Amino acid sequence: MEMTVEHLGSVQFEIKTRGHGIVSDQPLENGGFDEGMTPPELLLASLGSCAGYYAAQYLRKNKLATEGTRVRVTCEKVKDPVARMTNFVIEVDAPVELTKEQRQGVEEAVEHCLVHNTLLHPPKITLKVEGAVAARK
Fold first, then answer.
1. What is the pLDDT of residues 89-104, one digit of tens each?
2. d(CA 89, CA 105)
3. Nearest to 119 by CA among 78, 81, 83, 75
4. Which candidate, 2, 7, 6, places its Cα nearest to that of 17?
5. Is there a cis peptide before residue 39, judged by omega within 30 degrees of 0?
6. If 32 and its partner were Cys, which of 1, 7, 14, 25 is the partner (CB 3.0–4.6 Å)?
């Protein structure tokens, strides 16, 4: 997978992959124009849409209605020992009444979500900073 992020000016960035693009921005109080989600909101959106995908797949496989499935994701922001998001909660609301077994099935399906599992097992992250090399005199 590959994604490119390009600075548009101020605190806005355009995120592109596979011919698709979205804009990330900040709220007005953070110096932005509030024309897109913030990076932490995009992380929650990624987790929620991944969970929704797996929940809908389970419902579809079991011949249950999928349209109207809703996922709500919340988390807390903390600063100690470093600024981060924690205590994520994923709530899946199916558009049909579910039995106890079906609720368990949806839970098990969502536990296969790639984003969910990535957050549970933090990946190795390598940071590389490059820039134009100054001409030597």
1. 999 999 999 999 999 9
2. 18
3. 75
4. 2
5. no
6. 25
Pair 47, 73: CB distance under 8 Å? yes
pTM for the full predicted model: 0.90
With a CB cutoff of 8 Å and minimum separation 6, the contacts of 80 are: none
For tokens 């390009």, the residue is 6
What angle, 0 to 180 degrees and rounded to 10, lies between the N-to-C axes of helices 100-110 and 39-61? 130
Name residue 88's amino acid.
F
Helix, strand and coil content of the chain, in percent to the nearest 5, comes to 30, 25, 40
**CATH code of domain 38-120:** 3.30.300.20
Buried/exposed code over 59-72 (b: 16+ C-beta within 10 A; e: otherwise): beeeebebeebebe
Contact call for residues 34 and 26 (beta carbons, < 8 A): yes
Confidence of residue 123 (pLDDT cuts 50, 70, 90): very high
Count of alpha carbons within 13 angstroms of residue 55, beta-carbon side: 26
